[in-house]
Amino acid sequence: MSLSPRVVGLLSLSALLPAAAFILGRSEWVVAVALVNVFLIAGSLYVAMSPTEEHADHAEPNGV
Fold this sequence. Notes:
- The structure is a single chain.
- With 64 residues, the protein is an all-alpha fold.
- The chain has a domain at 5-48.
- It is 58% helix and 0% strand.
- It contains three helices and no strands.
- It has helices at 5-11, 16-25, 29-48.
């Protein structure tokens, strides 16, 4: 089974299930922080594993 890196990043959203269960057990602000963390991590993985654009220009490191 071959999964693309972007799909793996999206699979990290499955961490919302335990966070949702945490909401049912407690109603504190810590739960909101946990949910925000899940979205930040999932978004970071999605961006980090997405394909990049290749540029045709090959500039010199010193700009010359």
